[in-house]
Request: fold
Amino acid sequence: MRQSRAIDVSTGLFVLLGLVAIVFLVTQISNREFSLTETSYRLKAQFENIGGLKTGAPVKMAGVTIGRVEAIDYDMQLLKAIVTLRIDERYGEIPNDSDASIFTAGLLGGQYIGISPGGSEEYFKDGDQVAFVQDAIVLENLISKYLFSQAEKESAAKAEAAASQPASTPQE
Amino acid sequence: MSAGGDAPDSLPVNIAALHGVHYAVDDKVVLDGLDLEIRRGDVTAIMGPSGTGKTTLLRLITGQIQADAGQVVVDGVNVATLNRRDLYALRRRMGMLFQNGALLTDIDVFENVAFPLREHARLPEPLVRTLVLTKLHAVGLRGAAQLMPRQLSGGMARRVALARAIVMDPDILIYDEPFAGLDPISMGVVMRLIRSLNDALGISSIVVTHDVQEISQIADVSYILSEGKVMASGSPAELREHPSPLVHQFMEGLADGPVPFHYPAPDYRQQLLLQREGA
Amino acid sequence: MSLPRELASGLVDFLANAGAMSRFFLRVLVISPSGLLRPRLIVEQVYNTGALSLVIIMTSGLFVGMVMGLQGHDLLARIGSEESLGIGAALTLLKELGPVVTALLFAGRAGTALASEIGLMRATDQLSAMEIMAVDPMKRVVLPRFLGGVIAMPLLTAIFVAISLYGVQLIGVQYFGIDQGQFWSEMRSAVEIEDVREGLIKGFVFGVACSLIAVYEGYHADPTAEGVGRATTRTVVISAVSTLVLDYIVTAILL
Reply:
C-alpha cells in the first residue's frame, strides 16, 4: 500500500506541473492583462484605415500602456472602422480633445494606438468618441504618394522650363 | 448430493449439459453434435487428443462463445438465452482455473484472491481478510499472501488461481489443463486439491485434461472426445476395459494405433528410390 | 493478387478496422461514467502514461526549444529582426510543434506501454479470467487507461511547450544576447489566448486518438508473443499517422 501512496503523490505532482505550465502559457505569453478586468471605461474612435491593428493591441500615452483595443468593427453606414478602446480607470483624466493615432512598434512589430493629449479642461467619459484620429500609415500609400509627388515636381519643373524659354522658332 | 429421484424439490441431476452442440470456426468443424452431461457433485473429466475442442467446450459452458446449433444448459438455464447481466450473475457461481493461472500481474497474491470479493461484494475489510486467508490456507499458500505473481513457481501460481476460483464459493469449478507443465509433486498436490475441494465444498468439478493417469485417480466420470463427438464415457475403470482401439490407445498412451504415428506420406521406398535416381 | 485487387482488399481492411475501432470507441464512451466510481484506477493510469513520460517530454522539449532558438535566430538575423525570435518560436511551438511532437512521443512511450500491457493480459488469459469472474475487462482495464491518457496528454503538451520556450529563451537571451524583456514582451504582444487554446485543444484531441488506438490494439492483439509485438508496432504507426491527419483537420477547423 506504501507503493500506491508514492504513485498518488507523483501523479499529483505531475498534474500540478501540467496546470502550472498551462497557467504560465496563458498568462506569461499571451496578451491578456488581468488588471484590465478591473474597473475601466470605454472610448470609441473611427478610422478610415486601421492598417494592421488587432484586438488586444495596447493603447499608449507617452509610450505607457494605459489600455487595450477591445473590439474592432466596421460601420456600413459611416463606411469607417469603429475601434473600441478600454482604458484603465487610473487614467481617467484624458483631455477630451486628445487625438488617437495608429503607430507601428519597431519595423516588423504590431500596431498600437497612441493618444496625444489635447489642451481641453474636460476629460473623456465612458462611451465618449475620440474626435481627432490619425489613420495607420500604409506603406503602399506612402510609396504611391511619393511617386506621385515626384511626378508632379517633374512636370512642374518641365512646365517652368518650357515657359521660361524664348519663343521657339516655328518648325516647318 | 447426487439426487436420484424426481422429487419436486430436489435439484436437477445434471448441473450442466450439452445437447447436440455444433460449433465451427471458419470451415473447420470443432464440435459435431456433442452430447454431454455433468452430474452434480461429480468430478467429471473431459479428455481427448489435442485440438478436439475441449477448450471450446469450456467456453461454451461459460457463455464466452455461442454454439452454432444445439443447447448448452447450465443449472437448468440455456446459456445462449441469457443477457449480459444474467450471464454475469451465472458466472459468479462458477470458478475457473486457467492453464497458466491467469493471475493479475500488477497485484499481489492476497489481492488476486480478494479480487472477486472486491469487485462483487461490499464486505468489511476484516471479513475479506478472513475469507482470503481461509482459501489460501485450503490450498496451502497462506504464507505466500504478500508475494507478487512473478515470484511464484508455476505450481504455486496455479494454486493461488485455485484459491481465487473458490473464494466466492461457486457451484461449478472448471479446470483447464490443471496438470500441464507441473512436476510430479505439484501434480499430486493439485490432484488432491481437486478431489478434496469437490467433496468438502459440495461443488461439481469439470476437468479438461489429457493427463490420463492423473485424472483417472480422481474422476468419477470421464468423457473422451474425438472428432467433435463423444467417443466413450464412463468411470475410469470402465474406460480401461473399453473395447474401442482408439480408447485403448488413448488410455494406455500408445505411440501407434488408430491415431497413426506416421503423418500421411507417399510410399517410403518409392521416395528414396526417386532421390537416388536423381534427374 | 493483382495490384488493384490488393489495394481494394487493403481498403476494405482499413474500413473494417475503422468501423471496429469506432464501435470500440463508442463502447468506451458509454461506460465512461462508471470510470468515476474507480478514481484510484484512473489516478494510477495518469501516473502510468503521464508522470512516467515526464522525463522524455521535458528533455525533448528543452532540446526542441534550443534548436528553434538556434535556427530561428539564424533565420531572423538574415532579415534583421532577431527580436522577433520569441514570437515565431512561441506561435510555432504552441500551435503546431508542441502538440504534434508531444503526441508522437506519447505514442512511442505511453502508447506502446498501454498496448503491450493490455496485449499481455490478453495473451495470458487475464482478460478472459476477468470475464469469467464476471468483471468487465473494458471497465476495469481499458477505461482507466484510456481516461488516464486523455488527461495526461494536454498536460504533457503544456509542459512541453513551456519547457521548449525556456529552451528558446536560453539560446536567444543567454547565448545570443537578445534583450530578455524585449523577448518576452514581443512574444506577449503577438500571442493571442486563442493560440494557447488551439494548442491545448490539439493536445486533447491527440490524446483521445493516441490513447484509443493504444488500448484498442492491445485489447485486440493476437494472444501470442508475436501478437503483442505486432500490436505495439501498429500502435505507434497508426498513432503517428492519425496525429498528423488530425492536426490538419483541427487546424483547418480552428483557423
